[in-house]
Amino acid sequence: MERSTIVRVHEGLHARPATRFVKLAKGFESDVELVKDGKAVSAKSSVKLMLLAVKENQEVTVRANGADAIEAIEALIGYLENPRAGLDDESEAGEGGSETAAAAPAPEAAPLAAAPMDGISKLQGVAASEGVAIGPAFAHFPPEIEGPGRRLRADEIDSEIERFRGAVTSVQSRMDLTLAEDNLSAGDRGIVAALRDIAADDSLTGEVERLIKGGDDAVSAVIAAAATIAADFSAVDDHYLNARADDVHAVGRQICLVLLGQDEVSLETIPQGAILIADDIGAWDLARAPLKRIGGVVCGHGGATSHIAIIARSHGIPAVLGLGNKINELRAAKEVAIDGNAGHVIVDPDEATRSDFNRRVEAAAQERAGLKIFKEVTPTRADGTVIEVAANIGSLEEIEAAQEAGAMGVGLFRTELLFMRHMHLPSEDMQAETYSALAKAFAPHPVIVRTLDIGGDKPIAGIEFPDEENPFLGWRGIRMCLDRPDIFKRQLRALLRAAVHGNIKVMLPMVSEISEVTRTRALVDECAAELKAEGVEHASFDLGVMIETPAAVLIAPALAKEVAFFSIGTNDLTQYIMAADRLNPTVAKLNDVTNPAVMSAIELTAKAGVAAGIMVGMCGEAAGRPDLIPTFIGMGLTELSMSPASIQRAKKTIAAMAAER
Ligand code: PEP
Ligand code: MG
């Protein structure tokens, strides 16, 4: 017996919905399968369901065979069509799935290479969590677990299966104890909960039991089964699922340790400020570790989207991951310096490097302390006009840091992360919730949301990008959005809905023609009319543009008549004015915002905006530079948006300008 339907589960059957679906399926005696594109998997295994990669709006078939097949199909189809119905207090969008724990934007992976630095060993890894640190090395290399490789006699098999089941139960109860702890952050809790799901999953337990029945001892069977499942996760073309391979290994290891009667080597003894060095750290181990004492993390495994990176970022611990075999060069290190922004690790630094790092760490701490008094300052220029010092952020998790810094709103909310962090395009509801939360958090200050700015260099699931010779000159930003009204309108509708909750403004990236603004405005009107007809609450918003192409600068006077504000994107503007790729270190010298060509482009833009009486702001990196802020304010800019870490320094700079007059 089977029935097909279109999946309405937000983002599809990723980790937590998969677990919930399995829980429902297990409530029925019947064998239940989920079929997608002709491939059928057991609906009683969340790992198998995740690997089926079922997305929102895809067609699937639920197939059941057994006494309660009708009821099973009814219930499971009901869940797929209306996942919120019958749920307890867990909300679909805010649930603690590990993927929702992602914090700051994932940095780009840097190439792995050892770079000599005046005879000192400097390793390059993935810059996974920003900040610099230096401290004693704390090597955490628990011995590899090897299966005894013993063949079981037929009469030993049942008891070995029992032993394995007991070990699984014991790992699950330990994880439950961790989950019950009050001091676990919501993000870390989501991660541990996802690991617990893996430990309980039929595809792991089923495969282990199959191997034991074939005569393998339990430890060898767990190692082999975890390796097979991890390989499946690694093979999927999806970063999120790839990172789950490390989770499967970590869970397998925990089960083996129980089977062997061993304890994991503890992180409890890590000294204050030490740099934790490991080939791999289970997310569960790290979440339970004394995080306040950890100065930095360096790992052979892991990338920017791994759970280790997420935990490190959310606790402000600098981290360099993905060193591969080079991690072995750190096994005997006594002291380690790391630069989590550049992905550098320096082993046993010499005196000069040590004092350089100590100076950077100390300078960062001192500056942070001295700047605190500027948090509540509202800076003004000579005529009393308020200069808004706002934050550039990319996720709701960064709201707190922005507020802590004293941000007067958000000058750039990069929506790409919202699209990149999920396996599927985010739904209108999910986007509306996100933008509303943002608007509420900063009201009455403005929150400028930038519409999706993505291209073929950073593709996202759900949008087919063509292969392009020059993606930075290609189908990206507003160009792509206008060609894909299905995606663009979903975002615009969500923004209109969120505008009810605060001071939402919207800006368009990569604009090079006036028609891009007029076409967007027509779409906004269309969305507003639809929402009105549907009786959905919404409000209008100011529409502005980023000035980041030479074309936009050259038509700035005409553009200014069409929009409510300009925000100068100096990162792209510099690369396009100078024709120097912002990611190419060979032309880094040309990629300089202070080049007179770029500065005059900024000035032309400011003049056009001021003449038209619209707000001119800046959200490129240059907005946070104390050496340039006085010039920008002199040109007429009244809003500067930057990373939260730069806000207090910028306020201090503007206050000092006032003191000079
Ligand atoms: C810019 O180009 O200056 C900008 C702020 O946008 P992004 O860095 O996201 O391209
Ligand atoms: Mg840009």
UniProtKB/TrEMBL annotation:
List of residues binding phosphoenolpyruvate: 414, 450, 571-572, 582
Region (Disordered) residue spans: 86-106
Listed transmembrane segments: none
Subcellular locations according to the entry: Cytoplasm
SUPFAM superfamilies: Enzyme I of the PEP:sugar phosphotransferase system HPr-binding (sub)domain, HPr-like, Phosphoenolpyruvate/pyruvate domain, Phosphohistidine domain
GO molecular function: kinase activity; metal ion binding; phosphoenolpyruvate-protein phosphotransferase activity
Record keyword Metal-binding present: yes
Cofactors (names): Mg(2+)
Active site: 307 (tele-phosphohistidine intermediate), 619 (proton donor)
Record domain HPr: where: 1-90
Keyword Metal-binding listed: yes
EC number(s) reported in the record: 2.7.3.9
PROSITE patterns given in the database record: PTS_HPR_DOM, PTS_HPR_HIS
Pfam families attached to this UniProt entry: PEP-utilisers_N, PEP-utilizers, PEP-utilizers_C, PTS-HPr
Any single GO BP term: phosphoenolpyruvate-dependent sugar phosphotransferase system
The entry's keywords: Cytoplasm, Kinase, Magnesium, Metal-binding, Phosphotransferase system, Pyruvate, Sugar transport, Transferase, Transport
Binding sites annotated in the UniProt record for Mg(2+): 548, 572
Gene Ontology cellular component terms for the protein in this record: cytoplasm
Catalytic reaction list: L-histidyl-[protein] + phosphoenolpyruvate = N(pros)-phospho-L-histidyl-[protein] + pyruvate
Record-stated family: Belongs to the PEP-utilizing enzyme family.
Function: General (non sugar-specific) component of the phosphoenolpyruvate-dependent sugar phosphotransferase system (sugar PTS). This major carbohydrate active-transport system catalyzes the phosphorylation of incoming sugar substrates concomitantly with their translocation across the cell membrane. Enzyme I transfers the phosphoryl group from phosphoenolpyruvate (PEP) to the phosphoryl carrier protein (HPr).
Name of this chain's protein: Phosphoenolpyruvate-protein phosphotransferase
Gene (UniProt): ptsP
